[in-house]
Specification:
This protein is α/β, with parallel strands linked by helices and about 300 residues long. It has 16 helices and eight strands. A hairpin with a 2-residue loop joins strand 7 and strand 8 (about 275-280). Helix 2 (about 45-60) packs antiparallel against helix 3 (about 65-75), helix 3 (about 65-75) runs antiparallel to helix 4 (about 85-95) and helix 4 (about 85-95) packs parallel to helix 5.
Length: about 300
């Protein structure tokens, strides 16, 4: 799919554990491509840090790219107010970008915490010839349906990144019916299938949710959530899919913040505009983590009654 696209901007959009970075490394590692990387983190929400980091990465292809931009950042006390100028200065330096070179932006979702950071990257996609491969747990705000329709941007989402049944069985290396319920619950999630495959390799597969899976969820997803948002998302997990009005009915005043946090961390996904979902395995882990024995059944019964 990546080979077949001609878009300047190509994106891998899925929650944690869908192999986005692995795929990006493998595809960009082919001999016919040269690649430079910017890896997102909490500092990415600071547009000055983002701009400087991207410039440092790009200088591996275009030496001294962003020199004037960095000088401007040092001279101004409010770089977030100079985003357009910073992007224009940087764009002037990279107009001779090689056709075989790619800028990878990994974990882009951190940039989505800042309107200025998002604006900076948006301008780079419009003002420069830089080819970008972006991995993110959420779709960038500037990746509009119109730009995707007109092939300016190409997106591979979690449905394409998910493993098919035959691939999952090859990873787990078992073809019997014992693992069929696990595959149904995993819904192709590569990290889940990989963890389960490691468990099976060590012994009988009796527990469909190994401890390593809960540890993974806790470290990669839940640790970024405040306790009240974990509980809120656990309550929402009783509903297979929902929209914001239904979330507001269930969570009342905290709904907007909890939904926003769920989307930010990748616990919530938006498979269709306005429709939100929690993966069944995440839902189970959230409920197990948030509620005592019997409490889940009472909450589910109350929600069904509403």
């Amino acid at each position: 799919m990546l080979d077949g696209s001609s878009s300047q901007i190509r994106m891998l959009i899925a929650p944690a554990g869908y192999g986005k970075t692995t795929l990006a490394r493998e595809w960009l590692g082919e001999p016919e491509r040269q690649d430079v990387w910017y890896r997102g983190g909490p500092a990415t929400a600071d547009v000055a840090a983002l701009a400087a980091g991207v410039a440092e990465a790009v200088s591996g292809v275009v030496p001294d790219a962003g020199k004037r931009m960095r000088e401007r950042i040092r001279a101004t006390g409010h770089p977030e107010e100079d985003v357009d100028i910073l992007a224009e200065l940087f764009a002037e330096d990279v107009q001779d970008w090689p056709e075989d070179a790619w800028l990878a932006i990994d974990d882009y979702q951190f940039a989505m915490e800042s309107a200025a950071s998002e604006r900076f990257v948006d301008l780079l996609t419009q003002l420069t010839p830089i080819q970008m491969l972006i991995t993110s747990r959420r779709r960038p705000s500037w990746a509009t349906a119109r730009r995707i329709l007109y092939d300016e941007i190409f997106e591979i989402d979690r449905r394409a990144l998910a493993m098919e049944d035959i691939e999952a069985r090859a990873v787990i290396d078992r073809g019997d019916d014992q693992i069929s319920p696990v595959l149904a619950r995993a819904m192709g999630w590569p990290a889940v299938i990989g963890l389960y495959g490691m468990k099976v390799s060590r012994g009988p597969a009796n527990d469909p949710l190994p401890d390593e899976l809960y540890d993974y969820f806790a470290q990669e997803l839940f640790s970024e959530l405040a306790p009240e948002d974990q509980i809120g998302l656990a309550r929402l997990s009783f509903v297979r899919s929902f929209d914001r009005p239904l979330a507001a009915t269930i969570l009342e005043a905290t709904a907007q913040r909890t939904v926003d946090e769920g989307l930010r961390t990748g616990v919530l996904t938006e498979p269709a505009r306005g429709i939100l979902e929690i993966h069944p395995l995440l839902a189970s882990a959230l409920r197990d983590h948030s509620f005592q024995d019997g409490e889940s059944e009472r909450i589910e019964a109350r929600l069904v009654g509403q």
